[in-house]
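Worked example 3 (structure in, sequence out).
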């Protein structure tokens, strides 16, 4: 039996959770409960089901509560390393750069947002990523949202659009751009780190758009998976119906 390469994952759990008040006035959103399990526990167990047990969790808002939960539950069976962002909110891009020493290696790594619940097959996403030889591959779907990534006919990232503000950024000119919703499950090559030009606080969106013209960033379409953003308190009931 051959040893499978170790894939690491990062769960973004540092956000302020402003859309999830009043819970987030006293707790981090990652510890909000869905059918008796926190979002963080559910994502760690989801990664386990996908064969990933080496997990980085970044913390800022009520950081100690997350550290205590991980410690008291022995990482829910995974090896959990904390990336400490208590000094400053760094957003997803800045959080990724901060965690660089914990993620770098000779294998791609995965990121997911703590408030996303899904049963997307990460192994299929990894296979797509490797076969296409992408720098970054992220899951997308045809869902209604206000902010879309724009792709060409081959699902290469070309731009971004905000339908509320009308703002649009096209970084790779293409005809018949297809708007797709971002599903917050991403595979990165470690080679991405020296290419990142942003510093401090910035979003992954900024980084994707900066890199897209010179590097292969591809969307992986998934339509038939359970997926929900538990970013607002009113989403919890729907999440509990989807994930018993």
């Amino acid at each position: 039996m051959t040893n499978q390469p170790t894939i690491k994952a990062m769960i973004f759990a540092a956000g302020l959770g402003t859309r999830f008040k009043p819970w987030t006035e006293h707790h981090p959103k990652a510890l909000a409960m869905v059918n008796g399990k926190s979002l963080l526990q559910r994502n760690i167990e989801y990664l386990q089901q996908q064969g990933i047990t080496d997990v980085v969790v970044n913390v800022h808002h009520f950081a100690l509560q997350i550290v205590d939960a991980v410690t008291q539950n022995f990482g829910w069976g995974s090896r959990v390393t904390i990336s400490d962002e208590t000094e400053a909110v760094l957003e997803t891009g800045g959080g990724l750069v901060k965690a660089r020493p914990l993620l770098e290696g000779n294998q791609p790594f995965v990121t997911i947002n703590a408030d996303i619940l899904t049963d997307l097959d990460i192994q299929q996403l990894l296979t797509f990523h490797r076969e296409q030889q992408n720098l970054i591959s992220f899951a997308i779907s045809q869902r209604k949202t206000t902010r879309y990534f724009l792709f060409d006919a081959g699902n290469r990232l070309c731009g971004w659009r905000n339908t509320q503000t009308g703002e649009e950024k096209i970084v790779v000119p293409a005809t018949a751009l297809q708007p797709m919703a971002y599903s917050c499950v991403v595979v990165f090559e470690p080679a991405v780190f020296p290419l990142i030009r942003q510093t401090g606080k910035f979003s992954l969106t900024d980084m994707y758009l900066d890199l897209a013209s010179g590097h292969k960033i591809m969307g992986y379409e998934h339509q038939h998976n359970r997926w929900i953003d538990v970013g607002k308190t009113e989403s919890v009931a729907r999440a509990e119906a989807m994930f018993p």
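Notes: The first strand starts at residue 8 and ends at 12. The chain has seven helices and 14 strands.
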